[in-house]
Amino acid sequence: MRFDIVTIFEDAFTSYFGSSLLKRAQARKLITIRFHNPRDFTRDAHRTVDEKPYGGGVGMVMQFMPIYKCVQHVTSKIKNQRSKTRIILFSAKGKVLTQKKVQQLAKYDRLIFICGHYEGIDERVAKHVADEELSIGQYVLTGGEIPAMVCVDAISRYVPGVLGKAESTNDESFSQEGKTEYPQYTRPEVVSIKSKTGKAKLLRVPKVLVSGDHKKIENWRNIHRGNQK
């Protein structure tokens, strides 16, 4: 799986992509992440990628041509034209990302993410460059960099070999539509804390989980799967 990220803020990704699971996945060549800066496709000395919006209004809007040329450059480098590629623009008006959508995107060979910034992106990018628009929630962010991180993380989990076991994604939250994962516990079996009244309070792991009876444990987990709120 390859991710091509169109952004003017590559540094925002360095720490997150350079640690833990995603770092190991890249080292093992299970996923590839590349960055492409629209500023490299400008003509002026200041490498300008934004301008004032037509019709007036606050803020600056990212221009069409630098993004268009950047994406064209990325797609022109695809050697295998049969590879499944999808171009996604992160936008507040896009469809909200779900686990089902993550699973669908994981079936592609290559994903190109366009990260907007400032007040927004020239609408012609959405209409003539991107295949679809995605949002990660009904709230506004400064740019598309965080949604890109979310998508790379969520999608990579479905790439064979990235997780320790193939079945690791089967029991996760939302692997069953509308259901969240069952409660998890680990050692020690009993912990002691002070209650609000100052008295000692013992917090125990449910007995069934330490019983060794796998059938009962499975039943308990099925019963305690939560419903999406």
Beta fraction of the residues?
15-25%
Q: Indicate the radius of gyration in whole angstroms.
A: 22 Å
Query: Number of helical segments?
Result: 7
SSE pattern? EHHEEEHEHEEHEHEEEHE
Low-confidence stretches: none
CATH architecture of the largest domain: 3-Layer(aba) Sandwich
Outline the biggest β-sheet.
5 strands, parallel
Work out the count of structural domains.
2
Q: Please, what is the CATH homologous superfamily of the largest domain? A: SPOUT methyltransferase, trefoil knot domain
Q: What multimeric state do the chains show?
A: single chain
Number of strands: 12
Describe the overall structure:
- It is a single chain.
- The protein has 7 helices and 12 strands.
- The protein is α/β, with parallel strands linked by helices and 229 residues long.
- The chain folds into 2 domains: 167 residues, Alpha/beta knot (3-Layer(aba) Sandwich), CATH 3.40.1280.10; 50 residues, Trp Operon Repressor, Chain A (Orthogonal Bundle), CATH 1.10.1270.
- The protein is elongated and about 70 Å long.
